[in-house]
Design brief:
68% helix; Growth Hormone, Chain: A; 1% strand; disordered N terminus; 521 residues; mainly alpha; globular; single chain; 2 domains
Length: 521
């Protein structure tokens, strides 16, 4: 087949069509010229038309070739195909390595990768995640106080339902706020979620019984917190692709900051003004942080316009669960890995303060150890976020989860009765779990298109919600009489769930790019 130049009067791109095989196809507009000008790339049925006479005479061609461009000129292959356009170039080995990384990444041509607006968004998300993630890192401080005061005559397996319901409602509500964000932006869910969350904290201040705590803290705070979670996590990928892991890690450091400040603040407030006013002041601090988040955290990419009526839009949220995502095995294993990782981290964070109390520490020392967990989480989020962009997000996640499993077995179980070992474990485990929290969303984004990230992230956490709802009562049942031996059994349970998460992420990587240790993914 002869390849020549186009005549100036032809507009072949106007008559060509882009055929996308499935929702997982990623189209790179930078490849258009290569597809058109290279006869060996793309569809084998491609024909090039009408050469320019002057150019032909200079190149030694005496006659014109009259060919036609096929209407289905440019075809994109499925993302699951091993033969990509980039792999058809002569430098096959180098291109294969590049394509493995690019296969699941979005086109970065439109990403600012910085600038004032992008950095303000990161700051806004940081402030918003300070209470949103911070409350998850403060559950231990709240659980310990109400277990020793308002609910001191209630078994751990019953008290655990307060926090189980909170985590379940928190994660299930993500699916609606994530879908709403994809269609309408971040502002409305952030405002609604802030009002519900802070209102729930004010109501929690007056609670005396289990059912009151479940309704105020579990349901109201959980729904409000979950409503803010998806929009806050989803706006950063609108501005960064190549450095996405780093800046999501920086933004999520707000959760560690909240985990450092809030337990100490509550401990002081409990002693000075009591539980009721302590929770109210906590609510006002969270309101201030969320207000800054609302002001700066905003999306960049446009939303699709819909001609649906208001009723049709409301009913469409019943389909917010992205069931089609589970047709992709890579997403299935990411969801399983995320579920077991969250179970490991959240259950341990909920009961760790009580664990240190059982080991003989004072109440002030127990709160200090909880704070050190979040201190360790700050460098954990930053360092692993940076490394994830360099050596692969799945690679760092797998290592971190395996490291978490090892730390529990090597430090906590044999030496947990030594206060020095508890200080060391708090910092090291905090480093590891801070890394896990920051990479969960990044690994989801690794196998998702940016415009679908909010929905898929929310769908993932809808599944996670059921895991955490079951795990907190299971943990409470294992703890039982709150003896040292029972708490050690619980820590073994936590370590094994971290190991299971590492296995699922490893399988997910294998599905995408194989098991090569040097493969960046």
């Amino acid at each position: 087949m002869t390849h020549n130049d186009f005549t100036p009067t032809q507009s072949p791109l106007e008559t060509s069509k882009t055929v996308v095989d499935s929702q997982n196809d990623y189209f790179d507009p930078r490849n258009i010229n290569d597809i058109i000008t290279n006869p060996n790339v793309g569809s084998s049925s491609r024909n090039i038309i009408n050469e320019d006479d002057d150019l032909n005479s200079q190149s030694g061609h005496k006659s014109k070739k009259h060919n036609d461009i096929n209407e289905h000129d440019i075809e994109l292959q499925s993302i699951s195909s091993n033969d990509t356009v980039r792999n058809q170039s002569p430098n096959t080995q180098d291109d294969k390595n590049d394509s493995k990384e690019a296969m699941f990444a979005n086109d970065d041509i439109d990403y600012p990768e910085g600038g004032l607006q992008a950095y303000l968004v990161v700051f806004g998300v940081f402030m918003g995640l300070t209470p949103t993630f911070g409350i998850l890192n403060t559950l231990g401080a709240i659980e310990t106080y109400i277990s020793e005061n308002q609910l001191n005559d209630i078994p751990s397996s019953t008290t655990s339902w307060v926090f189980s319901v909170f985590l379940f409602v928190n994660f299930t509500s993500c699916i609606f706020s994530g879908t709403f964000f994809d269609r309408n932006g971040a502002r409305i869910p952030l405002i609604v979620g802030t009002l519900l969350f802070c209102g729930g904290l004010f109501a929690t201040a007056n609670c005396k019984t289990v059912w009151q705590f479940i309704l105020a803290f579990g349901v109201l705070c959980g729904f409000g917190n979950g409503t803010t979670l998806s929009p806050l996590v989803s706006v950063v990928p609108h501005y960064f692709n190549k450095r996405r892991g780093l800046f999501i890690s920086i933004a999520s450091t707000g959760g560690s900051a909240g985990g450092i400040i809030f337990p100490i603040m509550l401990r002081k407030l409990y002693d000075t003004v009591g539980f009721a006013w302590g929770m109210r002041i906590f609510g006002f601090v969270c309101l201030a942080c969320h207000s800054i988040g609302i002001a700066f955290a905003r999306e960049r990419l446009p939303h699709q316009k819909s001609n649906k009526t208001t009723l049709q839009k409301i009913l469409s949220y019943t389909y917010a669960f992205d069931i089609n995502s589970f047709k992709e095995w890579k997403f299935v294993f990411v969801v399983l890995g995320c579920t077991f990782a969250e179970v490991s981290v959240t259950t341990t964070a909920t009961y760790y303060t009580s664990y240190t109390r059982v080991q003989g520490t004072s109440l002030s020392t127990a709160y200090l150890l909880t704070t050190l967990v979040n201190v360790g989480g700050i460098p954990g989020r930053w360092i692993t976020g940076y490394l994830s962009d360099k050596i692969g997000r799945f690679n760092v996640m797998i290592f971190t989860l395996t490291f978490t499993f090892t730390v529990v077995l090597v430090i906590l179980l044999p030496f947990g009765h030594h206060q020095g070992a508890l200080y060391a474990f708090s910092l090291i485990w905090g480093f590891a779990t801070g890394s896990i929290f920051s990479l969960l969303s990044v690994c989801c984004g690794q196998v998702s298109k940016t415009e679908d990230f909010g929905k898929r992230y929310s769908t993932m956490y809808f599944i996670v919600a059921f895991g955490t709802m079951a795990s907190i009562p299971i943990g409470g049942a294992i703890i039982g009489d709150r003896s040292v031996a029972s708490f050690n059994h619980f820590m073994i349970f936590s370590a094994l769930t971290a190991l299971a998460a590492a296995i699922f992420y490893s399988i997910g990587k294998f599905v995408c790019v194989g098991f090569g240790l040097k493969t960046k993914f």
